[in-house]
Amino acid sequence: MSIGEVPKVHMPSKQIRQWRLTIGHRRKIVNQVCQVKNRIRAILKGHGFVKAACSGSWWNRSNIAWMDSLVQQEQITCEQLWRMNLADMLEELQLLDNQLKRITKYLDDYLDTKAGGRLLMSIPGVGPRTAEAVLAYTDDIRRFGRGNQYCAYFGLTPKLDESGQIRKLGHISKQGPSIVRWLVVEGAWRAIRKSPAFKAFYERVMAGQKDRKKIALIAVARKLLSIMRAMQISGELFNERLVCASCCLDEVKKSA
């Protein structure tokens, strides 16, 4: 900056930008589906239907058919106008479900063309939605020289509060694409359940203190991102033994 130069900014290709937009659009549809489902349940519970007619999920075929039967009446009285609202919401839910299936199939097919998709999905707990979001927003892994830089890009590194001689690490910065951060944290939860190495790392960070659960989860998410970066660079599939060794090495460095 002192010599009048503007820092370089990475500009993804149009294809990558469209990929990101599609991922974000799918996330919005998922949120809309959740909102409509909550409104449907609120209407039903408000009129005495505390439980669904059939066992299982409220949204399985049997219960959807039951909800449809509630609105299939030839004449709706003033006291039953809620059935009309329910009918509109069920139609909206069906429309959103169709849109979600269409966009999910497109994203699945597109991810199949990316070598990194199969690579990242070899990690226990990482599914197609997490893999595609990480790949789309990473774009070129070579632009991240260090693991900390990669984690910082997705807002999973702590902020530094510095005043005079006082240096304090605060909460994570939450900078960068929030959709990736959310998916990686969800993936971390699943990885803890499915991978002994991640579970052991989580328990070591938590140190038996329940109030450190969130701290430990973020630490696992950060570790997960670092491993994803290393795998994209090396092209190697997930290796439980190497992850276990890496986690143990981190603990040794901290205690040194």
Describe this structure in words.
- The protein is built from ten helices and two strands, in the order ααααααββαααα.
- It is mostly helical and 256 residues long.
- The protein has two domains: 98 residues; 141 residues, no CATH class.
- It has a two-stranded antiparallel sheet.
- Helix 8 packs parallel to helix 10.
- The mean pLDDT is 88.
The main pleated sheet reads as: 2 strands, antiparallel
Going by helix content, strand content and strand pairing, the class is: mainly alpha
Mean pLDDT: 88
- Count of the domains: 2
- Regions with pLDDT < 50 over 5+ consecutive residues? none
Q: Got a strand count?
A: 2
Order of strands side by side in the largest beta sheet?
1-2
Strand content: 5-15%
Radius of gyration: 23 Å
Write the layout of secondary structure elements.
Elements: H1 14-46, H2 61-71, H3 82-111, H4 115-120, H5 128-138, H6 147-153, E1 158-163, E2 166-172, H7 178-194, H8 196-206, H9 213-234, H10 240-255
Antiparallel strand pairs: 1-2
Notable traits:
64% helix; 256 residues; 2 strands; mainly alpha; 10 helices; two-stranded antiparallel sheet; elongated; 2 domains
Task: Summarize this structure briefly.
The protein has 256 residues and is mainly alpha-helical. It is built from ten helices and two strands.
